[in-house]
Structure formats: structure tokens, C-alpha cells
Amino acid sequence: MKRIAAILLLLPLLLCGGCSGLQLGADPVVVNAERTLQVARATLDAFVRFEFHNRAQCPPEVQAAAEKIRRDAPEWFARVVRLKQSYKLNRGADQKADLLTAVSVLSTAASEAATALAKHQH
């Protein structure tokens, strides 16, 4: 399990290795949103699975974080997808700001989950 946590912490760096090689015409805001969706899905899934399988040993704050993810993550993901589509239709400053904010929420949740996973794995 520690290997999974280490991989999850490095995953954003590994995925961002392709940032410099975007396809011609690719919008970095959209590409970042799509990558964040992938990384966050894997990270949050690993965290809630870890908490589920180790609930008896997990401290209350880990259990609470997992419950918050279970409750709120579907809307976080849906919001990024919705705002990404809106941004692709109208690449205005407001749409970009909304998408970047939603991506930041998802990215922060994934980062916190990866950190907690690394800290609490035995």
C-alpha cells in the first residue's frame, strides 16, 4: 500500500510530463482539467478504498475525510465536467475562472487524500 501512496503522490508530476508536448491547438486549460479528472479519480478512489478496508485502524479524521469524499466528490467531478464543456463552448474569462476554480477544488481534495493515504498506511 505504501507503493500506491508514493505513486499517487508522483502521478501529477508524471502526467504533467506531457504538458510541454501539447498537441497543436490543444487548450492547456482543457488538458489540465482532463488530467486532473483522471488523477483525482484514481487518488480519491484509492483513499476511500483504503479507508473502507482499514476502517477499524483509521483515526476519526481519516474516516471523516473519506465520508466527505464519498458525499461530495460526485458533485466535484460533475462540476469540472460541466464547466469544461461550458468553457469549450465559450472560452471567456468567466468560464475559464470557473473551470480553474473547480479544478483547484478537485486537485486539492486529491492532494489531501494522497497525503493522508501516505501518512496512515502501515
Model description:
The chain is built from four helices and no strands. It has 122 residues and is mostly helical. The model has no long low-confidence stretch (mean pLDDT 87). The N and C termini lie close together (8 Å). 25% of the residues are buried. Helix 3 packs antiparallel against helix 4.
Question: Which terms summarize this structure?
Answer:
122 residues; mainly alpha; 4 helices; elongated
Indicate the overall shape. elongated
Proportion of strand residues: under 5%
Number of strands: 0
Q: Which structural class is indicated by helix and strand composition?
A: mainly alpha
The profile of the biggest β sheet is: none
Q: Count of DSSP helices?
A: 4
Radius of gyration: 16 Å
Residue ranges: pLDDT <50 for 5 or more in a row?
none
Order of helices and strands: HHHH
Mean pLDDT: 87
Q: How much helicity do the residues have?
A: over 70%
Please give a quick description of this structure.
81% of the residues lie in helices and 0% in strands. The protein has helices spanning 2-16, 28-53, 60-89, 93-120.
Write the layout of secondary structure elements.
Elements: H1 2-16, H2 28-53, H3 60-89, H4 93-120
